[in-house]
Amino acid sequence: MGHDALLVGRAKRGDLDAFEELYRTHVGRVFGLCRRLLGDDAEAEEMTQRVFIKAWEKLAGFRGASKFSTWLHRIAVNQTVSEKRSRWSRDVESLGDEGESLETIPAPSGLRLDLETAVMSLPSGARQVLVLHDVEGYTHAEVAQMLGVTAGTSKAHLFRARSLLRERLG
Amino acid sequence: MTENDRRHDVERRLRELSLAGVEPERDLWPGIESEIRASRLAAGTARRWLVAAAGIVLVAAAVLTFRGGGSESLEFDPPAARALPASSSPYLAEAFADYDRAREELRRALGRRLAAYPEELAPSLAAAIETNMAVIDEAMANLERALAELPRDEELERSLVALYEHELRLLEELSARLAGSNVAS
After folding, report:
1. Global pTM?
2. Predicted local distance difference test score (pLDDT) of residue B76
3. Residues A36, A135 contacting (CB under 8 angstroms)
4. Angle at alpha carbon of residue A62, lines to B93 and A137, rounded to 5°
5. Stretch A115-127: mean pLDDT, rounded?
6. CA A80 remoteness from chain centre
7. Is the ipTM of this complex over 0.85?
8. Low-confidence ranges of chain B (pLDDT < 50)
9. In B17-44, which positions are buried (b, 16+ CB within 10 angstroms) versus exposed (e)?
């Protein structure tokens, strides 16, 4: 049995110390995901807290069919998307199916950026689609359903996001 | 590196980003811990109601015996209709619908029977019903309060359904007693 599984077992019995160890192990990935989706550190911190609180509440239902990290990651995506869906839907739709140009959005300071910074520099709608599709592996149909837009809008954003990213990575 | 190679390289690095952690600048655990402790406290309060309610259900089971007899007759006023707790699960909603229907049928049958044979409800029997109903009412009120704090809690909902069944058994047994006393007379 893996270390996570042992900690999950203890946490399920109400052991908060074990849950803290799980938090320490996984907070980086959860925060990283929230930060990429939200584009703001303070918001990402609050969301990360809510994700771990939600995970604690749902822990009794975790049967171990997947790894704890996978289960936690899915909670993070669902929690973030469900809380922000209406705002994001507006951001993402602002491109429209006709593909309004995003080229007017400037690259930060014209420097060659590392990948994480380059992703964070993307406009919000494009960044959310890129993170959900290229980083998290969701299909366009799934992204469209999550964000409440069409698959065409999702594809248009991804195309622009990738172009901008390559440009900013130099 | 060709444009195509560059594109594939970026896509590969993006996939790897999913596994990459970014540490938050501040420790988020104290906020998480205090929230969990607060919710535990609230759940603990609801659990205490549950324990109290469960204890009362046991008492109700223990007093669910009738000591019929006596000659004096009384009116039987069946208790008012119950309501389904707010934010119930489909399981509780379905159980409540069955219970409500069965309870209404029993209540009407008892009303008709007592209208035809008012002498059947002896004082000791009426007192036993009253005691049982009061116990059930209190247990239900406790469970409904607990469910208001912990909506859709499976254990609480199961206890409430058990209580519905308990009340129906009480009314059925009363019905059977009355029918039996009429046959005997």
Report:
1. 0.59
2. 55
3. yes
4. 105
5. 91
6. 7
7. no
8. 62-75, 183-185
9. bbeeebebeeebeebbbeebeeeeeebe
Q: Which one, of A138, A108, A142, A111, lies nearest residue A39 by Cα?
A: A108
Q: Å from B28 to nearest chain A CA?
A: 6
Residue listed under structure tokens 């007592």: B114
Residue A110 backbone zone (phi > 0: left; psi -120 to 50: alpha; other: beta)? left
pLDDT on residue B56: 59
Handedness of CA B151, B156, B160, B162 (dihedral sign): positive
Q: Exposed, middle or buried, A62 (CB in 10 Å: 0-12/13-18/19+)? A: middle
Q: Which helix (H) or strand (E) holds B105?
A: helix B90-116
Nearest to A135 among B18, B26, B36 (CB): B18
Does B32 contact A at CB distance below 8 Å?
A: yes
Neighbours of A94 (CB within 10 A): 14
Name the DSSP class of A135.
I
CA A96 – CA A100 distance, rounded (Å) = 7
Q: Which residue has the higher pLDDT, A52 or A104?
A: A52
Q: How far is CA B128 from CA A42, B61, B172, in A?
A: 63, 12, 14
The Cα A158–Cα B10 span in angstroms is 13
Tell me which chain B residues have a C-beta less than 8 angstroms from the C-beta of A29: 18-21
- C-beta of residue A40 within 8 angstroms of C-beta of residue A26: no
CA B25 to chain centre: 46
Helix (H, G, I), strand (E, B) or coil at B152: coil
Between residues A157 and B50, the one the model is more confident about = A157
Judging contacts by C-beta atoms under 8 Å, the chain B residues touching residue A134 are 11, 14-15
Residue A90 pLDDT: 67
Measure the CA–CA gap between B104 and B95, rounded to whole angstroms: 14
3-state secondary structure of A139: coil
How close B33 gets to chain A, by Cα (Å)?
Answer: 8
Q: CB–CB of A166 and B10 under 8 A?
A: yes
Instruction: Specify the pLDDT at position B80.
Output: 65
Which one-letter amino acid corresponds to residue B86? Answer: A
